[in-house]
Design brief:
mainly beta, 4 helices, 8-stranded antiparallel sheet, 14 strands, 6-stranded antiparallel β-barrel
């Protein structure tokens, strides 16, 4: 499997839906990331930039995955981005960038912030072979102050089929598969939801898409997430006018290939798990 390196009753406490989530102070420009366009700086304020220590990068860190800010101290991301990571390495070797438009942060010092990771919670059922339960939560060492460039996305309570069948937006700094277009700036693209029965056809993913996953993209390919986008958000604007993070960029075969769309972790499937981790930590 070619992993995209590179996505009840709720307890009424810290994980409850926060007021003002899923709103943008800076309006995006959406044309119809492989096949995508550069985002308006600051228009996806929940986009997190996950960075690891680097001896070669002038900033000291390199971007390796994405994530989503879901409240003032927690980041939602993919488990496979952190598989094998040792807890003791978190404060020293990793940083979470918020408010950044450039992949390496160069030129974003006026609005971007780097935060220390204090705790990592990977789903106990994560399977590195099948990418089942591909979800993780990161707790920042200190709370974030929201502003025009940094604010959280909302968490969904409804399954993606009933709330996110159109106008899904994926964002990230991943590979565009174009050697002349290295994505230094945050990319965005719109993709439609694909029914799981379609995605699991023999000539597509042949049953490899599980209940906690869903597909989004085009049968003919051409638009997709790719290496480096993993863990980033798939968001949808719902009837209340707010954006909800319905998917976590997870895996796929190739990038933007026909009948091999992006596969996303279904956030709503894990809502109780998310609430439990946040409320107890």
């Amino acid at each position: 499997m070619n992993v995209l390196l590179v996505l009840t009753l709720f307890v009424a406490a810290a994980a409850a839906q926060i007021s003002g989530c899923g709103k943008q102070s800076i309006v995006p420009v959406l044309p119809y990331i492989v096949g995508g366009t550069e985002a308006v700086k600051g228009s996806w304020p929940w986009q997190a930039n996950l960075r690891a220590e680097s001896k070669w990068n002038p900033t000291g860190y390199y971007q390796f995955c994405g994530g989503t800010l879901i409240n003032n101290q927690w980041i939602l991301t993919a488990g496979h981005c952190w598989f094998g990571t040792k807890e003791r390495d978190l404060p020293e070797k990793y940083r979470i960038g918020l408010g950044f438009h450039h992949a390496d942060g160069d030129g974003d010092e006026d609005v971007g912030e780097l935060h220390i990771v204090s705790k990592l919670f990977m789903h106990e059922g994560y399977n590195d072979n099948t990418l089942a339960n591909d979800i993780a939560l990161l707790k920042l060492a200190s709370p974030v102050t929201f502003n025009d460039h940094i604010s959280p996305a909302c968490l969904p309570s409804a399954p993606v089929q009933s709330a996110c069948t159109t106008d899904s937006i994926i964002t990230g700094w991943g590979d565009t598969e174009d050697p002349n277009n290295v994505p230094d700036y945050l990319q965005q693209v719109q993709v439609p939801y694909i029914p799981t029965e379609t995605c699991n056809q023999r000539t597509w993913y042949n049953g490899e898409v599980f209940d906690e996953m869903f597909c989004a993209g085009y049968a003919d390919g051409g638009v997709d997430t790719c290496q480096g986008d993993s863990g980033g958000p798939l968001v949808c604007k719902e009837a209340d006018g707010n954006y909800y993070v319905h998917g976590i960029t997870s895996w796929g075969y190739g990038c933007a290939d026909p009948r091999n769309p992006g596969v996303y972790t279904r956030t709503a499937y894990f809502r109780a798990w998310i609430d439990n981790i946040i409320n107890n930590n």
